[in-house]
Structure formats: C-alpha cells, structure tokens
From TrEMBL:
The keyword Transferase applies. Pathway: Carbohydrate degradation; L-arabinose degradation via L-ribulose; D-xylulose 5-phosphate from L-arabinose (bacterial route): step 2/3. GO terms for molecular function: ATP binding; D-ribulokinase activity; ribulokinase activity. Residues 291-488 form the Carbohydrate kinase FGGY C-terminal domain. Belongs to the ribulokinase family. Keywords: Arabinose catabolism, ATP-binding, Carbohydrate metabolism, Kinase, Nucleotide-binding, Transferase. This is Ribulokinase. GO terms for biological process: L-arabinose catabolic process to D-xylulose 5-phosphate. NCBIfam families: L-ribulokinase, PRK04123.1. The keyword tRNA-binding does not apply.
Amino acid sequence: MSSGEPLVVGVDFGTLSGRAVVVRVRDGAELGSAVSEYRHGVVDRILPETGRGLPPDWALQVPSDYVDVLRTAVPEAIRAADADPADVIGIGTDFTACTMVPTTADGVPLCELPGFAGEPHAYVKLWRHHAAQPQADRITALARKREESWLPRYGGLISSEWEFAKALEVFEEAPEVYTRMRHWVELADWIVWQLTGTYVRNACTAGYKGIFQDGRYPDASFLEELAPGFGSFVDDKLAHPLGALGDKAGTLSARAAEWTGLREGIAVAVGNVDAHVTAPAVQAVAPGQMVAIMGTSTCHVMNGDGLREVPGMCGVVDGGIVSGQWGYEAGQSGVGDIFAWFVEHAVPASYVDDAREAGISVHELLTRLAAVQEIGEHGLVALDWHSGNRSVLVDHDLSGVVVGQTLATRAEDTYRALLEATAFGTRTIIETFERSGVPVTELIVAGGLVKNALLMQIYADVTNLPLSVAGSAQSPALGSAIHAAVAAGAHPDVPAAAAVMGSVRRAVHRPIAENVKAYDDLYAEYAALHDYFGRGANDVMHRLAARRRSVRKGLHR
Ligand SMILES: Nc1ncnc2c1ncn2[C@@H]1O[C@H](COP(=O)(O)OP(=O)(O)O)[C@@H](O)[C@H]1O
Ligand SMILES: O=C(CO)[C@@H](O)[C@@H](O)COP(=O)(O)O
C-alpha cells in the first residue's frame, strides 16, 4: 500500500552482478535491495555461443544479462522494501566503464544479430578488456607527436580500456563489425537507452573515456593519421547529444515498466559510472575529498579547485563527477581481482578445508592469519600489476611481482604482501596528485573491500590519512538513487541531494604512528621496484607480454 513517501530506485551494474536499491527521497534511507548475478559473468576464455577460445587479455560480457537485472533485481528490491511501485518517482543507474558495445541505429547489440553470435568483437567489451594496448600506445604516441591539447587532460597517456583504443581494435580486427555498427555505446548509456527508448550520452564517460574536452572530440585528421579510414569514426559512430549528470535522460518506457514493475513515465536519470556516482553517496563533493571505490578494481575520484595536469591520472573532466566542478579520476585496474586470483590459484587445499571448517571465506582465513603479523615480518614486497597498471603508469602490459619469497613463505604472507601492494599503489596515486598541486585532504573508502578491517588499517597506515568509510554497503546504487531523485526534481541538484541522502562514517580507521614509519620503509622498496619495472629500466614485462600474446595468438588461429 502506498505510504505517500516519494521513493527512488538506484541500480548499480558492477563487474559480476547488478544491485538494485529502493531509497527514500526525504533522507536516503535504504528500504530494500536485491542482487542479480550475471548469468554469463565475465567471458574471458570461451565464447558461450560457439565454444571459440578467446585470445589473451580479452574480457567480454553478454548484454542480455544486464536486462535480466532490470527484470529480476528491481522488482525483488521493491518487494524486499515492501514498497508500492506507485511511490517510485525515478530510477537512476550506474555502470562499470569503459564498457562498450557496438549497436545498430536502434541500439541492438551486434552480437544479437543473426550471423554475429560467433564474432567476439560484436559483444560487450568489458572495462578490463585489455587487448587494445597496441592501439592505445599508438594513440598516445601520435597525440604526443602532434601535441594534441587533450593529451595532458589524461595525464599524458591514453588507456587501452577506453573508447578510442577499443574502437580502433574493432576497426582493424573486425571490419565487418565496424561497418555494421551504427553506434559505439557505453553500457552506462545503453542501459538508459533500454529504460527510456532514447539514446543520450552521459558527460562523465564522454569526458573520461571518450576524450571529449572543451566541447570537442579528437579531430578527423588525427584519426585518419592514426589509421586510414578511421577519420570519420567520431561523426559516424560516436558523437551524440550529451546529458549532464543528474539531468533527466527521459522517462520510463512501457517496455521497461513491464520489466521492472515500475510506473511508465517516471524520470530516468542520465547514465553514470559506478565510481563517480559514489562521490555524492558518501557526501564527498568538495575539493580534496578523495573517494576510493575498492572492489575488483579501485577507482579514485575527487573534485579539485580548477584545472591541473596530473601525470598518469585517468583524466580531469569539467562536470565529470558533479556538474560545474572539475572532476579528477585515477585508478588501479586490479585490487580485489588480485586477491581473488590468489585465493583461486595459489592457496593450498588445506587452507580451503580450514576455511570451510571455520565457516569463513578463504579471504577471511588468510586475513586472520596475516593480521597477527608484524609489518615486514613476511620479508616480501609486491607490485600490484596483475591486471596491469592504470595509474600512474597507464600500461596494461605490466604484470605482478613478489620479491623476497623463500621456502618459509606461506600463503598468508603473500596475501598480506598483495594487500599492502595495492595500498602502496594508492599512495603512489595520492603523492602524484599532491605533487601536481591537487591536494588530497581526506580519503573516503567505499565498495566491497571496506569489510576487510586489516586492509583498511593497512591503507590508513600506508597513506598516513584517516580513513572515512561509506555509510551504505551499496554506495554506488545509493549514488544512482541520488541522481534519480535530482532527475525527478525532488532535490535541486546533486550536492543538495547528497547532503540529505548520502552517508559516511568519518575517520573510522586512523593511522598508527609506528606503523606509518614501518610502511614508509617498505614503500620506498615498492617505489624503487615500481620505477625499475615500470619506467623502462628493465622492460622484461613488456617482452614477456609480447611473447605470451604471439604464442597464444598462434594457438587460437
Ligand atoms: N574478505 C575479503 N578480503 C579481501 N578481498 C575480498 C574479500 N572478500 C571478497 N573480496 C574481493 O572483493 C572483490 C569484490 O568486491 P565488490 O565490491 O563486491 O565487487 P565489484 O567490484 O564487482 O563491485 C572480489 O574481487 C573479491 O575477490
Ligand atoms: O573504471 C571504472 C570507472 O572509471 C570502473 O567502472 C571499473 O574499474 C570497474 O569497477 P569495479 O571494480 O567493477 O567496481
């Protein structure tokens, strides 16, 4: 039965699942939520339709999995909240990025067309599809040569994760897909297109991932010099009207109303990115408040006072986090993903048995064992590059390293070294911002990894910053709900909505002076290894990546 209280729905499309939350507009109270795992998960070895093996560094997804989230998680969240759909005045969404799909003029993903199901390039390329590194390197090199004004806005390097590198990969490796595609679409916008029937590009992904700066994309002469025939890419496949964050993209269509059980005609917010939408959810909209969204990867987002050039950042975009402010982004491509890899592939069976007996996850067991160690007791230092390096080196041909292993090294030692390595990676990013005149005054952590208290303490000690923690366990979905409330006209703008709907617990983990000192020493070792392997002193990782690529390509021919 209707309570008469206006409600909104936020839906967060992550790497492995989509989560819906029903939120009260008046105070941000989360009344109910539901999760829907993607049926196909991350497709990185075999294409489901054909059983065809995929080359290295590929990561695809199947678009119908996202629609399943709308069909299942949204109505389940409404039921869990015991809410009346008639009270819901808007819906907002956020997505991983840069996650891209080639579509027809109507938004149909090419992989759903007859004849394209066996073509890997016709699928969604997930943010962590890293096979376009050669294309990214060429974009960066040419932009440097031509002194393109947009390059410094991306820290001097264009990522293989982004729209142009992935599109050039399609252009060069699957011409029939490139020719057939009418739009090269961020999933953040595709999902809004599914909800409203209208395609609107959001200002966030266009800016950070689509090289849209000062009202323009890279020009045709640049693209033509990059690859003959690619010059018309922006006009033919990419450019489209933009929407500001918090604006209404359109209204819920009859078809989407049927999927979700919500009322046709309610407001649908312009699409957004999981990281950026989290800033208002934790009330971090002022300059210097850095939000680290720690899950499979970590994104660092922060508003800054004006425009600065930060080497190796992902980007700085006008209105990229909150309309009217310069938003900065940096990130680490692998964080929880690295811990997951270790748990799956490097832990003896006896640990798995012990965890089962104790009724905890292997992560929790390793964390318990690692937590009783003194800092440095394991004698290890690791580099957190198992999924490449997003910031500040922007190089996905880099790989992981653990230095110091002996016959006495145990799984919990390496696990702890990996936790620490990711904290050192975050410190490298913070120091780079500070050196570039963008001070970081507060670190606020959100995302699934918040639950690991050892990890949080390590981050506080390594960065020597008090750590505030998101008040909500589903801050991206809450952030999307905040945007829905603004799009529906219930709050005047995103900062105003954040003030009443967002939530954060301040300084939950404080640095401990003696730990800070011990980590300063270990960080110096990390920094030396970082520069040795990452800045050209020894290119062994590039040589190994090239060899792996050529051997595996041969196998998949
Ligand atoms: N107790 C734990 N300690 C450290 N990492 C964990 C723990 N439990 C799960 N993880 C890792 O956290 C990641 C999931 O984070 P989450 O924020 O839920 O996902 P996503 O990034 O897809 O939104 C996985 O990579 C998983 O390996
Ligand atoms: O890169 C971005 C945002 O710019 C993220 O969407 C991407 O790292 C995926 O984040 P998750 O690890 O799935 O939370």
